[in-house]
Amino acid sequence: MPDASPTSAGLAAENQALEYLRGQGLQLLTRNWRCKGGELDLVMLDADTVVFVEVRYRLHADFGGALESIDARKQKRLALAANLFLLKESRWADHPCRFDVVALQGSHHAGRPLQWLKNAFEC
User: Fold this and answer.
1) What is the rounded CA–CA span in Å between residue 77 and residue 113?
2) How many helices (H) and strands (E) does the chain have?
3) How many structural domains compose the chain?
4) pTM summary value
5) Secondary structure (3-state) at 5
6) Could you tell me the pLDDT band of residue 5, with boundaries at 50, 70 and 90?
7) Taking CA 77 as the corner, what is the angle to CA 21 and CA 51, rounded to the nearest 5 degrees?
């Protein structure tokens, strides 16, 4: 059976992350929110905190694992997209916010649990 395409593998990772976070009590506000500056994979609510979740999937760790792929440039793009989201969705603008990363690695995640890094970086 051929490997899943990167798009379908990424979507599967995002689905797995979403279900895991829902199981932890977070509520989905929106998914794949796009703007000129980028995209927010998942925007969720954790009690009263708006959580911008970046889902990272890597088949191999050859060039760094999924968590290591969130470099300073990526963080800036996520912060810009989050600011635009809060401008457009003003009902959330007064809520506390944080950036989380959910990382999955390996073919079908190779039986490895996902990694959820709360408050992965600050902007």
Assistant:
1) 27
2) 2, 5
3) 1
4) 0.84
5) coil
6) very low
7) 25
Give the tokens for residue 85: 């989201």
User: Any idea how long the chain is?
Assistant: 123
Contacts 24+ apart (CB under 8 A), 71-75: 75/99, 75/121, 75/123
The answer to whether residue 57 is domain-embedded is: yes
Contact 46, 100 (CB under 8 A): no
Strands 49-58 and 38-46: antiparallel
Distance in Å from the first CA to the final CA of the chain: 43
Report yes or no on 1 lying in a domain: no
Range of the domain at 112: 6-121
pLDDT digit string (tens) for 21-57? 999 999 999 999 999 878 999 999 999 999 999 998 8
Report the 10 Å Cβ neighbour count for 43. 22
Q: Is residue 42 part of a domain?
A: yes
- Rounded Cα gap, residues 90 and 88, in angstroms: 6
Asked if residue 88 belongs to a domain, the reply is: yes
Instruction: CATH number of the domain at 61, please.
Output: 3.40.1350.10
